[in-house]
Write a structure and sequence with these properties.
alpha/beta
């Protein structure tokens, strides 16, 4: 096997939002998507639009026809799927078997590797709609790639496949895969929760279009935090403004008590990071922590 994959027959299991888009990206790169599995009506439509030359077949038949088997299934389904494909004789030595799960490295693919397949983890660090425009968003998108430790050829194959899709490979060692995924989920998923909750609070405050207020503010905060890290911190916690924090706690307790625990937890962590960055004196931080933990009627 060379560092750069030859033109490959690709099988996609399954044509969900991620699988259909990555299959289309591989086809755009010159590979031949020969088959895809698609159970739901939405998956079938995605296959028709994004993978028009692929036969829609059961997973075992998809894998059996492919040189590159792309497993784009939920994290918890991956290991069972691999075992099932092996039980049906669908995987074989010489294949490339890659999954798109962020949470896993090559571990769930170990049974396929024992057959002589090349196991790879190719996780695109972006969200997908499963629509054609995702192909453009994929350009320059970072992928967390993982191959087995010490198998430099496998690492090169993983990186070449990502580059061919127009994206950027980032090596994630097997041992760091769980931490990598926790970081992405903590940032992206919890950011959505936080922003949606802020929008709800603004609506309660009578703001008809929260996005108009939040868009510029949060865009600047994200840009500053990526460039400056903790030095970008502003606001009452970073200033040690206990009176304002007390007001926030009171209004949240009265108007949105379900938001209070998240506010307190994030404010505690913000105070800790502000001290570490030299923005907040330890004595000020102690007052902030005390106020956040103070029980009020």
């Amino acid at each position: 096997m060379t560092d750069r994959p030859a033109r490959l027959a690709v099988g996609v299991v399954s044509a969900g939002r991620v699988g259909a888009v990555l299959g289309a990206a591989l086809a755009r790169a010159g590979h031949h998507v020969v088959a895809a599995s698609a159970v739901s009506a939405a998956s079938q439509r995605r296959a028709e639009v994004l993978l028009p030359e692929a036969a829609v077949l059961p997973p075992d038949e998809v894998a059996g026809r492919a040189d590159l088997v792309l497993l784009a299934v939920p994290d918890d389904e991956l290991s069972g799927l691999v075992r099932g494909l092996i039980a049906t004789g669908s995987l074989r030595g010489g294949q490339i078997v890659a999954h798109t799960s962020g949470a896993h490295g090559t571990g769930p693919l170990a049974p396929a590797a024992e057959l002589g397949a090349l196991p790879l983890a190719l996780h695109p660090a972006m969200t997908f709609t499963g629509r054609p425009e995702d192909l453009q968003r994929l350009v320059a998108c970072p992928f967390g790639v993982t191959a087995r430790d010490g198998d430099e050829i496998a690492w090169h194959v993983a990186e070449a496949l990502v580059v061919e899709m127009g994206a950027e490979p980032v090596r994630i060692p097997e041992a760091a895969r769980a931490l990598y995924h926790a970081a992405l989920a903590h940032g992206a998923n919890h950011l959505i929760t936080l922003v949606a909750e802020c929008a709800d609070l603004l609506r309660k405050a009578g703001v008809g279009d929260p996005a108009r207020l939040l868009g510029p503010l949060l865009s600047a905060a994200l840009d500053n935090s990526l460039r400056l890290g903790d030095r970008a911190l502003t606001g009452p916690v970073a200033r040690g403004d206990v009176g304002t924090i007390r007001t926030h706690l009171g209004v949240l307790r009265a108007e949105s008590p379900e938001s209070l625990p998240a506010y307190q937890a994030l404010a505690h962590r913000t105070a800790e990071r502000a001290v570490a960055a030299g923005l907040l004196r330890p004595g000020q931080a102690e007052a902030v922590h005390f106020e956040l933990d103070e029980e009020q009627p």
